[in-house]
Design goal:
The structure holds two protein chains of two kinds. Chain A is about 55% helix and about 10% strand. Chain A is of the alpha+beta class. Chain A has a domain of about 140 residues: Butyryl-CoA Dehydrogenase, subunit A, domain 3. In chain A, the strands form three sheets. In chain A, strands 1-3-4-7 form a four-stranded mixed sheet. In chain A, helix 5 runs antiparallel to helix 6. The two termini of chain A are about 35 Å apart. By secondary structure, chain B is α+β, with helices and mostly antiparallel strands. Chain B has three domains: about 120 residues, Orthogonal Bundle (Butyryl-Coa Dehydrogenase, subunit A, domain 1); about 110 residues, Beta Barrel (Butyryl-CoA Dehydrogenase, subunit A, domain 2); about 130 residues, Up-down Bundle (Butyryl-CoA Dehydrogenase, subunit A, domain 3), CATH 1.20.140.10. Helices cover about 50% and strands about 15% of the residues of chain B. Chain B contains twelve helices and eight strands. In chain B, a hairpin with a 2-residue loop joins strand 2 and strand 3. In chain B, helix 1 runs parallel beside helix 4. The longest helix of chain B is centred in the C-terminal third of the chain and has 29 residues. Chain B starts with 6 loop residues before the first helix and ends in a 6-residue tail after the last helix. The chains are: A alpha+beta, B alpha+beta. At the A-B interface, helix 6, strand 9, helix 7, helix 8 and helix 10 of A face helix 8, helix 9, helix 10 and helix 12 of B.
């Protein structure tokens, strides 16, 4: 057990942060938003440096992929990194062409995160995962306020694509949950420090708003849950997305996300709702993550199935 | 970064669980529901800790020079988890090995080390802590108990309150003001006071938490030799901070909470309550709270294992830990229904344990203040 980064991990994260410093960040995110555009430049840079496949490398694994995915989310990168680096590597031994978008068969006709910019849909269909290479015209863009490019698959997702075999559905479910947890944690941590910075400077009643105890306790409370969520997400990745741990990580991160969204916007006041202030870059994403894969209640159901054999 | 138990610690856990299976009596559940401070559990803890001591396990995490085995903080965590999960057969002695001993190692004189460390390691001795006072609760630095030098002694006068485990205690880890003109955290010293010293009077404060849970301890002209002082004179605040860093995550409450939750899930399945998706949702939500507390606590243990300086991770873990007790205590009453209303029942015992969670060892609000100021570095004005 070691909660500190190894030298290798430190080196990797330093390089990733340098790369994100050049290619990502809230300003870049906002620049891409009006056209629901994908950050191809960032995607390629992550791929060229081998980060997308890091989980398959010797001496590396899904924990390293999760640590990078968290940084990408922290930097508000508009790339489906966790989908390739954590989920695809966890579900299939073969490389799956990215950008990848994740969907369940229940998402037929519904907005799907990154679908409008993806080359491949990884579909959860009962106990199978299916891979569908997208063709021009398969997806229509969906206008969304929730921080990610969204698209709708025009056909029926049930039975679409090539099956990865029986049992692949559970792998997809579990790794998807880990990816959700990691992405959520990255967004929440960025939003927390953003709000802390703003409230340390913004003055009302002659003092910084962040000096009021009512404000401090809310932020401190969020710091506790967000950091708890972070360790759960990283542990779940490290342990290979076991059902109980993956579901716990997703359920706790996404429950926390709901509170964080409400508290951060409440504390930031009206400016937090504007596009000139960066908070929305992370918070609106949290709500998109909360509805995926059946949402918090479905993750909790999975906990009960795994831990207490509830049918 | 990696999250696996070492092969040795994983193997030890198995050995220790087997040991618990052999040594705990059939009526252990009956004994443990009364709590670590109860007469029954204190009596049992002497036998239990003695057997642990015989195996060299009670203080195995201590350095070899103090009779330990240098087994490290993670090994100590294994013992803590397994003991708390089943209701803490070490009774209040978990405090001794967790922070009283280490504080003596860190600040004690050779004489104090010789007196206290072997006694603690033998598993046959009890300590209580004399921190809070009637006028110094969350604001501990307002304490007024005075210790005035007189020849080779100090004479102590004052009142301590909310003290647990006192009825069996051989020693009190006492905070007193040694500079009457001092304010706040300056001018405080720590004394290791034998409870048999004349002038100490104990009064139980009846409470809804349980019998013999809270006490007031009155010190009237209590005369102790100067050699009872731990650390430098007027430098006790550093000592108590050292001790509290250990105490705040000393009890593996998440481990007990997780086991209690599994029991509640079993009951919910048997009674059909689990058919209600809201019950499923609540149980799973509580499991998440326990797991988050476990990982935040592990974060602190990792710091301790590396002998690194404690950080505000301790506060994060403490706050999360109290949330587990609250969540499980309330859920126990909800799942068990009217059965919870009987004193000593499973749900009643858990609920009573949960009641004090956010108050003991520093109120949650004080912990939140520390997180806000030291971790988030929010401004004072």
């Amino acid at each position: 057990m070691d909660f500190e980064l190894s030298e290798d991990q430190q080196q990797i994260l330093k390089s990733v942060k340098d790369l994100l410093g050049q290619h990502a960040g809230p300003t870049r995110n906002i620049e891409l938003q009006p056209n629901a555009a994908y950050d191809t430049e960032l995607h390629d840079a992550l791929e060229e440096n081998g980060y997308t496949e890091i989980a398959r490398m010797d001496e590396m694994g899904p924990l390293e992929a999760a640590l990078i995915a968290e940084e990408v989310a922290y930097a508000a990168g508009v790339v489906a990194f966790a989908e390739s680096a954590l989920v695809a590597t966890g579900v299939s031994d073969e490389e799956i062409e990215g950008p990848i978008s994740l969907a369940t068969v229940a998402d037929s006709g519904k907005p799907i995160r990154y679908a409008c910019t993806a080359k491949t849909l990884l579909i959860l269909d009962g106990d199978e995962a299916r891979v569908l290479s997208l063709k021009d015209g398969d997806i229509e863009k969906v206008e969304s306020n929730f921080g990610y490019p969204m698209g709708r698959y025009k056909g029926e997702l049930k039975g679409a694509g090539k099956s990865l075999g029986a049992g692949s559905g559970d792998k997809l479910r579990n790794w998807w949950r880990v990816a959700l947890a990691v992405e959520t944690v990255g967004c929440m941590r960025a939003a927390l420090w953003h709000v802390v910075g703003y409230l340390s400077e913004r003055r009302q009643f002659g003092v910084a708003i962040g000096s009021f105890q009512a404000v401090q306790h809310k932020l401190a409370d969020n710091a506790v849950t967000i950091h708890g969520a972070r360790w759960l997400a990283l542990e779940a990745a490290f342990k290979g997305a076991q059902k109980d741990q993956a579901a716990v990580a997703a359920a706790f991160a996404l429950e926390t996300a709901g509170t964080a969204f409400t508290d951060f916007h409440q504390l930031a006041g009206a400016i937090g709702f504007t596009r000139e202030h960066n908070l929305h870059v992370w918070t609106m994403r949290l709500m998109a993550l909360r509805v995926e894969l059946g949402g918090v209640h479905s993750h909790r159901r999975a906990i009960a199935e795994a831990r207490w054999e509830v049918q | 970064m990696e999250f696996d138990w070492s092969v040795e610690d994983a193997a030890y856990r198995k050995e220790f669980v087997d040991f618990l299976g052999e040594i705990l009596p059939e009526n252990w559940d009956e004994i443990s529901k009364h709590g670590p401070g109860s007469d029954l559990q204190a009596e049992f803890s002497k036998k239990f800790c003695g057997k642990m001591a015989d195996k060299g396990w009670l203080t195995q995490h201590w350095p070899a020079e103090y009779g330990g085995k240098d087994a490290g903080a993670w090994r100590h965590a294994v013992v803590g988890e397994e003991c708390w999960a089943i209701g803490e057969p070490r009774g209040s002695q978990y405090m001794n090995v967790n922070w009283v001993g280490p504080a003596v190692m860190q600040y004690g004189t050779d004489e104090q080390k010789k007196l206290h460390l072997p006694a603690i390691a033998s598993g046959n001795i009890f300590w209580c802590q004399g921190f809070s006072e009637p006028e110094a609760g969350s604001d501990l630095v307002s304490l007024r108990t005075l210790a005035i030098p007189d020849g080779d002694d100090y004479v102590i006068n004052g009142t301590k309150i909310w003290t647990s485990y006192v009825q069996h205690a051989n020693y009190c880890f006492l905070l007193a003001r040694t500079d009457p003109d001092s304010k706040r955290h300056t001018g405080i010293s720590v004394f290791l006071v034998p409870m048999e010293t004349p002038g100490i009077e104990v009064r139980e404060i009846p409470s809804v938490v349980g019998a013999r849970y809270f006490h007031e301890v009155f010190f009237t002209d209590v005369r102790v030799p100067k050699g009872c002082m731990l650390g430098e004179v007027n430098a006790g605040w550093e000592v108590v901070n050292f001790a509290l860093q250990y105490e705040r995550v000393g009890a593996a409450r998440y481990a007990r909470a997780a086991l209690t939750l599994d029991h509640l899930a079993k009951v919910a399945k048997e009674t059909g309550l689990m058919d209600d998706p809201i019950v499923v949702d609540k149980l799973a939500q509580a499991r998440c709270i326990c797991e988050a507390a476990r990982m935040l606590t592990y974060r602190v243990i990792d710091t301790r294992a590396k002998d690194a300086k404690p950080t505000t991770d301790t506060q994060l873990a403490r706050i999360a830990g109290t949330r587990t007790d609250r969540a499980i205590g309330e859920l126990a009453v909800e799942i068990l229904g009217p059965d919870a209303l009987e004193y000593g029942s499973f749900a009643d015992a858990n609920f009573r344990l949960a009641m004090t969670a956010g108050v003991a060892v520093g109120a949650t609000e004080v912990q939140l203040n520390l997180v806000a100021r030291r971790f988030l570095e929010l401004p004072k004005k």
